[in-house]
Specification:
One of its GO terms (cellular component) is plasma membrane. Belongs to the AgrB family. It is a multi-pass membrane protein. It holds the Pfam family AgrB. The chain is an all-alpha fold and about 200 residues long. The protein has a domain of about 120 residues. Helix content is about 75%, strand content about 0%. Helix 1 crosses helix 2, helix 3 packs across helix 4 and helix 4 runs antiparallel to helix 7. The two termini are about 35 Å apart.
């Protein structure tokens, strides 16, 4: 039902945006698509953070989510094929997993090892494109890789400076999740094509 109502809502909102102007079909479709993406993300956010609130996990979910987004901003990676799949995956990644790992205490050497593996994977595999959004421009890929490394280093530095073990674990979880999203092994496991710019 949700998937049926979002396009209808997006159409109504887009018509409201252009109510005083004539617009061609292509322009209307582009704006409508943007509105749909916005509505889906808002709805997904409401569902994820409502689930977090029910489990008393609001700040933990926020820490994992922000860590993930900071690195994902330039490294990109896998997307779910459907809105429902994306919502379910988001609840699992940002609510269920943090719920089970929040009390895990990691030793200093484990933290350093995991941090090094995260940074290494970002340096090797970022950015990762998808079939729908191939990254054809080599210079752009180079710039995105550099920004991804800087973002990851910044997130991990914050994690190392924070004195609270639970927060360290949650930041590492968010960083690890995004590292998995760009890893070619997960692409192959899910039957998705990697390095899509090579198939132009």
């Amino acid at each position: 039902m949700f998937s049926l109502t979002v396009p209808n809502m997006a159409t109504k909102i887009t018509k409201t945006i252009f109510r005083d102007r004539e617009v061609d079909e292509d322009r209307f479709a582009i704006v409508k698509y943007g509105v749909e993406i916005f509505l889906v993300n808002v709805t997904k956010g409401i569902i994820v953070y409502s689930a977090a609130a029910l489990l008393g996990m609001l700040w933990q979910t926020l820490v994992v989510h922000l860590s993930y987004l900071m690195i994902r901003r330039h490294s990109f990676g896998l997307h779910a094929k459907t809105s429902l799949g994306c919502t379910i995956t988001s609840v699992v990644m940002f609510v269920i997993l943090p719920y089970f790992v929040k009390d895990v205490q990691l030793s200093e050497w484990m933290i350093m090892l995991i941090s090094s593996l995260i940074l290494l994977n970002i340096a090797i595999f970022a950015p990762s494109d998808t079939e729908n959004m191939p990254l054809f421009n080599a210079q752009k890929r180079h710039n995105l890789r550099r920004k991804s490394i800087i973002n990851t280093f910044f997130v991990l530095l914050i994690m190392l400076l924070i004195p609270f073990g639970e927060v360290k674990t949650l930041i590492l979880l968010g960083s690890t999740l995004q590292t998995l999203m760009i890893n070619p092994c997960l692409y192959r496991l899910l039957g998705r094509r990697y390095d899509n710019y090579e198939f132009s």
